[in-house]
Amino acid sequence: MKLYGIPNCTTVKKARAWLAENGHDVPFHDFKKLGIDAAWLRQVSRQTGWQALLNTRGTTWRKLSDAEKAAAGDEAGAIALMVAQPSVIKRPVLERDGRYHLGFAEEQYQALFGA
User: Considering only CA atoms, which of 27, 44, 24 is closest in space to residue 86?
Assistant: First the structure.
């Protein structure tokens, strides 16, 4: 099990707090410090869909040029953008039992962990 994200992201903070409060010591992969590679992103997108993995609601996305946004219009372009700018990855990404789960909602984690 591993949690991926950016430590100052509010949603990541909520997920990490929930995991800790419920007795789950989960290793954390910081996209900013450790980066992320295209192969991992392709693996996640096979399960979640690249459109769900690309965060088009955040500040980083809004700051992109129209050309950069257009270049992310297919899986290859979106993955290239996510490698270059990990802040556009939907977060957190929780890897558990070979499955990837995007975002955080308490109900979602309760269902995943049977809490």
Answer: 44
Q: Are strands 28-30 and 2-5 parallel, antiparallel or unpaired?
A: parallel
Work out how many domains the chain is built from and give that number. Answer: 1
Q: Give the other-Cβ count within 10 Å of 78's Cβ.
A: 21
Task: Give the CATH number, domain containing residue 43.
Answer: 3.40.30.10
Which residues constitute the domain of residue 85? 2-113
User: What is the residue type of 19?
Assistant: L
Instruction: Give me the catalytic one of 3, 5, 9, 50.
Output: 9
Pick from 24, 43, 22, 21: nearest CA to 3: 24
- 27 noted as active-site residue: no
Q: Please state the pTM of the whole predicted model.
A: 0.93
What is the C-alpha separation between 3 and 74, in angstroms, rounded?
A: 26
Which pLDDT belongs to residue 114? 87
pLDDT in tens, 44-83: 999 999 999 999 999 999 999 999 999 999 999 999 999 9
Residue 115 has pLDDT above 80, yes or no: no
